[in-house]
Write a structure and sequence with these properties.
The protein has about 250 residues and is mainly beta. The protein has a single domain, classed as monomeric porin ompg (Porin, Beta Barrel). The protein has helices at about 1-25, 120-125, and strands spanning about 40-50, 50-60, 65-75, 85-95, 105-110, 130-135, 135-140, 145-150, 155-160, 170-180, 185-200, 205-215, 220-225, 235-245. It is globular and about 50 Å long. The model is unreliable at about 1-25 (pLDDT under 50).
Length: about 250
Amino acid sequence: MHRLNVARIASLFGLMVLMAVSIQAQQFNSDSYLSKPAGTVTTILTAGQRNDMLMLTFSLLPRWEFTTSVYIYNSDSNAATAEGYSSSLYGKYMFYENKAKTGGFAVKAGTGLEPGYLEPDNSLHDAFRTYWANAPATVPFFNNKLSWDLMPGFSATRKLNTDPNSGTTWAFTYATRLAWYPISPKWSAVGEVLGALGQGTSKPEYRVGPRWEPNQHIVIAITYDQEFRGDNGAKWEGGVMLFSPQFLCIKCK
């Protein structure tokens, strides 16, 4: 079993490397307003019961981020089998940040959706047929003890030509996340709700877990995810975010 898990992770790395050569949230789907300083490369690895994920984000320009991600599915909970994969590409622009750098607004747009938004059959074939946009916003409360992220958006999915009801389906997507820092800025308890309203979308999901931010270069989180009225959630996941020094950018300050 250990060798099979290693093979899954290795194949995930291989797919991401191929994508990175051609083009360039951690397990929490909600995003904050923040774009990392120009030159930063963010690497995110998540391993879970439903799917594994690798994500690379490049802060090539001030206020801009460009992200590629790939998801490998394991819906039957058998590490010896693979149920396919999907990917996502998108850009993000931070257009406002408050003076304290604790809140602001951004816009994002791209193709491909996180598996939690779609029914299982749709998510396996979703990449590059779904186009979406959303608007992350972060609002701090109680002297930064609470941080609330809101991310409303929409998506448009082109159905396969073999589908008798071929055409484009639209959906309203939403995600919201609340982080509570009871002791210090390094530890937080995080809760999230995400879902979509429209044809072919999944049931709403919740996600909860602790998050540890020991320094400016790493964030570690463990979460449990499940549908409110179903059993197709991601269940247990562990994830890590790594932030590089500022070295890769087109226009650096």
